[in-house]
Design goal:
The protein is an alpha/beta fold and 223 residues long. It has a single domain, classed as Rossmann fold (3-Layer(aba) Sandwich), CATH 3.40.50.300. The chain is globular and about 45 Å long. 35% of the residues lie in helices and 25% in strands. Helix 3 crosses helix 4, helix 3 packs parallel to helix 5 and helix 4 crosses helix 5.
């Protein structure tokens, strides 16, 4: 029997500059453990806005979000940040690695912040995640010296360091060529097979077609 890991109920989101504008309209969805879901739609339809709400990075909305049975809507910021670090790994279109840090140091950062383990254990965990990404030989290299595809694989390793239940990615292949896109797709498929829930915002319909389920957004709604 599948396990629900994320539920969103009637999410509404407004922007107020330059004037009040509703971006999301009563969006509801449910994600199961080990499911790989792609959100597609035209630019400006609200895909990334929805993802930022689901990831708890944006808390300015109406409606309710529940992750692993915990209602995260309205949680105090410090509790929400801790919950996010434990349960959600986020991959941005622009990897946001610290360029002057090594690959290994970048991957270790979320685990050091969470503070569950000592630095030696975290380093070993980071090396294991890099190995999963085929990047273990680059651990000592400065992040700025990597190619775009390599940097995105490091960003995924960083997102995985705390063993989150859900991986969320916003256009993770938007700046990659077809070869690196195929590598990222295979990584996500493997993670889903291992029980991670994956939700990806993408413009790439070929990429989306290889996920388990496609949610198409139209004008801030999921029909």
């Amino acid at each position: 029997m599948s396990k629900e890991v994320l539920r969103a109920e009637k999410l509404n989101k407004y922007f107020y500059e330059p004037s009040r504008f509703q971006v999301l309209h009563d969006v509801s969805l449910s994600l199961q453990k080990g499911e790989f879901v792609s959100i597609v739609g035209k630019s400006g339809c609200g895909k990334s806005t929805l993802l930022y709400l689901l990831s708890t990075l944006d808390t300015g909305y109406e409606g309710a979000i529940e992750i692993n049975g915990v209602g995260v809507t309205g949680l105090q910021e410090d509790k929400l940040a801790k919950f996010r670090n434990e349960h959600i790994g986020f991959v941005f279109q622009f990897h946001f690695l610290l360029p002057e840090f090594t690959v290994l140091e970048n991957v270790m950062l979320p685990a050091l912040k969470l503070g569950r383990f000592d630095a030696g254990s975290i380093q070993q965990m980071a090396l294991e995640k890099l190995k999963e990404m085929g990047m273990e030989e680059f651990g000592g290299k400065i992040a700025a010296k990597l190619s775009g595809g390599q940097q995105q694989r490091v960003a995924i390793a960083r997102a995985l360091i705390n063993n989150p239940d859900i991986i969320m990615a916003d256009e993770p292949t938007g700046n990659l060529d077809s070869a690196n896109t195929a590598i990222i797709l295979e990584i996500f498929r493997k993670l889903a097979a291992q029980g991670n829930t994956i939700i990806v915002v993408t413009h790439d319909l070929d990429f989306a077609g290889k996920s388990d389920r496609i949610l198409e957004m139209v004008d801030g709604r999921i029909p």
